[in-house]
Amino acid sequence: MAAEEEEEEEHVEELQFLDFTDMVQLTRGGCQVKAASLTRQRVTIEEVESGKRYDVFGHFHLTDPWWTVTARITCLKGKWHLEYYPSYSLRTRVKDERTILSLFFTKCGVHHQHQLWFWDSLPKTINLEFANLMEILQSRADVSKNKGEKDMVISIIAAINNSLAGQYMQNTLKFPHLMERLPSLLPRQFLHIMRSIPEKEVNNAEMNNEKQNESINNSMLEQLEQIIQTDVWKLGFNYLLRKEVKLVGCEATLEAFERSNLFRTIPELQQHALVIYDELKRVCWSKGHTFVDIKDLTGLRADKFSDESAWVSLEFLKSEKIIVREKTRVYLRRFYKYEKDIAMCIEKLVNKPPWIISLPVKEVLRRGLIPPKKERSSEQQDDNDDTTNPDADCASQSADDDLDSDQVKAATMMCENPVTVVSGKGGCGKTTVVSLIFKAAVNLQREVEEACKAFEMDQLTESDDTPADNIPIKPLEIRNRSILFTAPTGKAASLLKKKTQFDAYTLHQVMWSFYNAEKCKITGKPIDWMFSQVNVLIIDEGSLVSVQVLSSVLRMLMEYALLQKLIILGDVRQLPSIEPGNMLADMYNFHGIKWGIELLTNHRAESQLIIDNATKISEMGVSYKELEYDAVMCVGNGVTATIPTVDKRFIKVSLPRVYDRFALQDAIQILLKEGPGLKDHQNSQFIAFRRRDCDLINELCCKHYSKHSTKNHKNRIEFQNGDKVCCTKNGYVRDLLEQKKSEKKSEDEKEKKTRLCNGEVFFIGQDLTSIEGSKKTRSLYLDDLDERKVQVNYNEIMRECKLQHAWARTIHTFQGSEADTVVYIVGVAGRQNWQHIYTAVTRGRQRVYVITSEDQFIRAVKTRCPRRSTRLRELLQENLSKAKFTSANGESLSQQPPSQTVNQQQSSSTPARAPATFTIAHPNPIDSSPPTASGQAKGDFFAPHSDGEINEPRSETEPQRETSYSADLEFAQNYSWSSSSQELEDQDMAEDRKSPTAESIPSPQTSSGRDAFLAKSGDMSSQCCRSAPAASSPDSKRLNLTVDEMETPTKQSKVSLVDSPLGSMRLGLLKLEDVIPKQLFSK
What is the pTM (predicted TM-score) of this model? Predict the structure, then answer.
């Protein structure tokens, strides 16, 4: 065979759908399979019997002349084409065997001099073939007494063993059925499965591991060979391959069985099982369901299979644990487990001891959102510090009125709830609110630690008479990875980082960092995982997140990190993930616990018309509403187009009633030439529903902006300077700019690669070609016009990231991104519904064009969104309907009044991790800021409350408790997590009134470092409870107090408010009581 590639090279990609279970399987000896998208090649084939030659176009795995190919070919328009993937075997009884073997030696990398010596020394009586090649070489190495000759033979053997051609040849002799059947059953994984060792060369230090991998791979090939001979149907079920062969990430399709003529050789039970399984997968992936009604699976191929056979096949699939069946629902095993894992992790999260981030929410939002007005001079402030200022109170009230009440509620929920789901359109301030809250928390944490260190210095100075300048100061240990900002795509993560100033990662980066982290051989726990200290997980663009990804990330962070809070941001009206499931809608619409809130107010003045029209579009699934356009531009039918002015924000480009591709082309060209916002392609984006429309627009934009076509005369994609391009899949590439900077670094550091994410947009700054001898190397300098600049090898980035032009992108690929000006092409309505148009319209920040004909637009927006059959909401209802807070000793706290529950948790004797035991007395408490749901004392912002509980006598003064309970319960029911229903809490309060006891307030003293301080904190109405410590239990860390020192807790006006200690060298400004220096900061 002689081959000529029609494309440049094959694209190899890592497995894209590894979940948490797959990763665990791989760490325990499983085999990860890569998938290869084969190029279409023209191969010259010679028929064995007649000797006739054919030039055949098709996908060939192996094209070397020592292979025999068995394939079906058909003639179309005078050209021969391959019907399906062929099977392979080694050629035998070849006339010119020496020539074929010489080509084989060369492909294996055998030295030319060694080849000449081998052929000269080979006896003419030996009939050398591939079948006996390795045996002859090994025998000559064993009997040779000449050291030089023996070394040459060993060198030939090593070259064959370490080359891909040699591996394929030897595995073909060992496993002939694999070479015959596997190329057609698993065409994309075939080449990787047949490799015995990795493609790279290894050093001596890695040789043992590579030999172990080779042994594992040989065992896997033996098992596959046995399966093909006995139970070939097992290759159609991924679960069975992972269970029996430890082969992760591949399975044969029903089409592969049928086109390879293997389907009819399978028993009828397994045939019907494959048909049902294929239909279940098809429906789930095409419609987004996680389960299918059983009646939709029992009538398949009725002419061949009976209904009784269908029920038997379903029972067979269930017994093999391939599917899960519950009543009339049939689940794919994976998606059943994903939803169940999410519900289980959420249940564990809400049942953890409550962790409240104590912040003056309104003050934080006021400082971050409302522009500062003229402030009084410092002297005027000092004069009025101790007096009541009515003007200041009015100004504060006015500032509070300017705040968005929904944002205040959302911020409060983030601080208090274990789970918060925030929905809203673009411009409502979701990311702004979350960034302000956690920036304030981090800053306040830093200031408290600085104050504690300053106090320690003062104490050491007073006791040791050591000059303050000579006291060593340790650097602050802020847990900068406690807050994890994530997004489903690289572009969304980049935007999130830019908006929040926090490091942001894609969810796949979190998963792969876990997979690549070194694991403990006994427990499997990752060692030095970069996300092991995460307390808060924030997910942006939640509508794009699949149940598979969320379940994997939650399991990792729940089992191997310190997760305490989950915050999901998104828009429930946008398109859901293209994978099965409807995570954001199920989480938001769960009514068991009020953890969801919608931000309704738009805070972008320039996009108000866009938001108003988006709201109308979201309601069109029920009834059609006319959109409000501030300009209409008609194109086609001989009408002269009127170009809108710069001040127009929502513009309709009206096409003829009958869809005309030429009219669309004219509209695009007019907009490119004169349309406001489109002269600069850096801040504008075309979006379409169909790839065909994207290809047309990219061609027009490429000619307009870069003055060339998207493809050259060989029909290959063409890139030049100034082109707008994007990555269409995640990949790792070498950054040549970093390599130039690291010439003196180690080889490992040089080989460190840069991750480019799917959806990242770049502009080509330079198209460079370097010449070294006779070799030319092409590289591209890519700039995202923000912070990222990379120079990459052209072939590498095309292989790993599959670069494409990006002036126009489909709505699914652009979801999660934004642009100042967006142009959406509706085209033919087809399968579009209002969600597609809504998602596209909300991508525009300042201006939106809608190119459509009236009929197609009405048809699209009137189409209702198909309902996805999912179970996540039901599982949350089942798991959380009886959810209760529990203490460390297992006693339920959910039926206790909130303030009592928190107070008991504060008095815990066994902290879970760095318990919150100190607070800051603000100099000017803000009356209007919302109180905490439980009246809890404010504490360490990145430390959850302790798990333990101490049973203490309760207060006999009940009326004063009722006031705080009623306020707390009212707020908790409206805004934050409630551990049980209102009815249960009222019953408990009634029982408490019947048996009055003394309520305990935690002691201001503990024995651990700067976490040993508890300032007196009151409610937000400038009232506080006087501390009333009780006698300590045997396991308590409290100091023993006498009965005389105990007081009944009563509410009083706070006295002697002091200035904030933030930035001060004197920690005495904090409300500290009875500090014992020897206990301070003890380890």
Answer: 0.76
